Amino acid sequence: MTTTRRALLSSRFIDVTIYRVPLIALLTEEGRWVMPAVTIAVVAAVVVVAVLVIAVMAVRRRRRLQQRFGPEYDRLAGEHDSKRRAESELAGRERRVRGLDIQPLTSSARAGYAQKWAAIQEQFVDTPEDAVASSQILVVAVMNELGYQAEDPGQMLADLSVEHSAVLDRCRAAEETSRSVAAGTASTEDLRLAMIGYRALIRDRVGEPGARQESATAESAPVFEPGDVNPDRHAMRVAGT
Fold first, then answer.
1. What angle do CA 119, 123, 129 make, to 5 degrees?
2. DSSP structural state of residue 222
3. Rounded to an integer, what distance in angstroms lies between the CA atom of residue 212 and that of residue 210?
4. Are 163 and 226 in contact (CB under 8 A)?
5. Which of 3, 189, 210, 211 to pair with 23, CA 20 to 30 A apart?
6. Is the pTM higher than 0.70?
7. Please, what's the b/e burial string for 110-133 (b: 16 or more CB within 10 A of its CB; e: otherwise)?
């Protein structure tokens, strides 16, 4: 190879872009591309910055999911034995719910559901098992009208966790009690707690405005709080008495 040819080869270079940072690689006399030390340092710095950015984004994502889902985040992390898997599932729930056509209830729908709920609470006095079953049916009707797919209880709870994590544990317990009712194994305490769980969801979804439209009879319907129900399942405190 002539001296002129060598000079031409050693003077050739190429622009390389890594993470949008233009770098220069030189062509040696042997025909190999090499990067100067300064180029290597810049590449290393870019990689470090990228890793830090990804780490910060992951921490922020984790905190956001923990704040949004509360105990549900911890439950899934324990169930999967992995925070990363839990976060992946919760992010999937968010994407799914964004794809649903969730619409608020009309005023007339709120009033109608509030009246049905008042009647179910009164039903609990004589037939608590039937009241719990009716509560589940009412919840499914409310959730379907809102735009959720409530036929699958597990999916409904997963969807609810995105925007209504505060009532999720009570709703999950209520659904478990409903299965116990169907199997004939629910205790009086189970039934009472199921009503509390369904009431939390009804109030959260139907809201207080509908409750204010109830009749005077509905306003005096039974309320179920810890300590309200005596060992005799038919004895309970009625609001305002």
1. 130
2. B
3. 5
4. no
5. 3
6. no
7. bbbbbbbbbebbbbbeeebbebbb
